[in-house]
Write a structure and sequence with these properties.
Shape of chain B: elongated
Oligomer: heterodimer
Order of helices and strands of chain A: HEHHEH
Largest interface: A-B, 29 and 33 residues
Largest sheet of chain B: 2 strands, antiparallel
Number of strands of chain B: 4
Number of helices of chain A: 4
Distance between the termini of chain B: 20 Å
Number of helices of chain B: 2
Strand content of chain B: 15-25%
Strand order of the largest sheet of chain B: 1-2
Radius of gyration of chain B: 21 Å
Shape of chain A: elongated
Order of helices and strands of chain B: HEEEEH
Helix content of chain B: 40-55%
C-alpha cells in the first residue's frame, strides 16, 4: 500500500522538483540578459521527466561511496544536463538570451508548476476521501 | 530547493542593474565636468557584468559586476578660447560621455530591474502556493 502511495505521489513530486529546477535555470537566463558571452540554457522537460521516471523504476543508482555523484536523484543538478538554446537573433556581445522567449517560458513554467500543485492537492483529497470512507 | 535560488539570482541581477544605474547617473551628472578629482577631465565609466554562481559549487548563475572600467573612447573637444582650461588652439577637453548612449543604458537597466522584480514575485507566489498545499 505504502509503495503504491509513493508511486502515486512520487510522479508529482518529481514533476514539481523538475519544474522548480527549470524555474531556476530560466531565472538565471533572464537575470543574465545583459551579461556579455552568457549563453541561454534550458532542458526538454518532458524528456527529462520521462527519463527520470523510467530510471528510478528500473535502474536505481548504487551509491557505494558518499563521493558518488548522481546517487541522490533529488539533487537535480547532478543528472539534469541543461542544453544551450538555439539563438534566432544573436547579439554582438555573444549573449544569446532573448528576454521575450525566456519570459514566455518562465510564465509557462510557473503556470504549469501551479497546475502540478493543483493535481497533487486533488490527489491528496481523493486519498483522504478513501481513508475516511465517505 | 531550487525555487529559493530564484531569489538569489534575481537579487544579484537587481543589485548589478542598480549599480549600472548608479554609473549612468554618475556619467550623466558629470557630462560637462572638464575637471574631475584627479585634475583631468571626467572619463565615462561602464560596468562589466559576469555570470557567477550564487554560492560556491551551485549551478544557479547570478550576475556580478566584476569591474567598473573607464570608457576608452576619445575625449570630446570643444572650441571655446575664453574657457580657462582651453589649450593653445582654443580647444577645451570635455568628458567623453555620450548622453544618448547613457539614456538608452538607463532605460535598459530600468527594464531589466523590473523584469527581475517580477521574477521574484512569481517565485514568491509559487512558494506560497506550495506552502498552502499542507493546509
Amino acid at each position: 500500500m505504502l509503495n503504491g502511495l509513493n508511486q502515486e505521489i512520487g510522479f508529482f513530486t518529481d514533476a514539481l522538483n523538475l519544474r522548480a529546477y527549470r524555474h531556476q535555470i530560466l531565472a538565471a537566463n533572464i537575470a543574465n540578459a545583459d551579461t556579455p558571452n552568457y549563453k541561454a540554457r534550458d532542458f526538454d522537460f518532458a524528456a527529462v521527466l520521462r527519463n527520470a521516471r523510467s530510471n528510478m523504476a528500473n535502474l536505481p543508482l548504487a551509491g557505494t561511496s558518499p563521493l558518488h555523484l548522481g546517487a541522490n536523484p533529488s539533487d537535480m543538478s547532478t543528472w539534469v544536463k541543461p542544453l544551450y538554446r538555439q539563438v534566432l537573433q544573436p547579439s554582438l556581445d555573444g549573449n544569446t538570451v532573448d528576454t521575450d522567449v525566456e519570459l514566455a517560458q518562465f510564465s509557462d513554467n510557473a503556470i504549469r508548476y501551479q497546475a502540478d500543485l493543483i493535481f497533487l492537492r486533488n490527489k491528496f483529497q481523493k486519498l483522504q476521501m478513501a481513508i475516511q470512507g465517505q | 530547493m531550487s525555487l529559493f535560488n530564484v531569489f538569489d539570482i534575481a537579487g544579484s541581477a537587481m543589485m548589478a542593474q542598480s549599480q549600472r544605474l548608479n554609473v549612468v547617473a554618475s556619467n550623466l551628472a558629470n557630462a560637462e565636468s572638464a575637471v574631475s578629482a584627479d585634475g583631468t577631465p571626467y572619463r565615462a565609466k561602464q560596468v562589466v557584468f559576469t555570470a557567477t554562481p550564487v554560492r560556491p559549487g551551485e549551478q544557479a548563475m547570478g550576475v556580478q559586476v566584476s569591474a567598473v572600467v573607464d570608457d576608452p573612447s576619445p575625449m570630446r573637444k570643444v572650441f571655446d578660447p575664453k574657457h580657462p582650461l582651453a589649450d593653445a588652439n582654443g580647444y577645451v577637453t570635455m568628458p567623453n560621455v555620450n548622453v544618448v548612449e547613457e539614456m538608452t543604458n538607463m532605460i535598459s537597466a530600468t527594464r531589466s530591474y523590473q523584469v527581475n522584480a517580477d521574477m521574484m514575485n512569481t517565485a514568491k507566489t509559487l512558494l506560497l502556493k506550495t506552502l498552502a498545499l499542507a493546509q
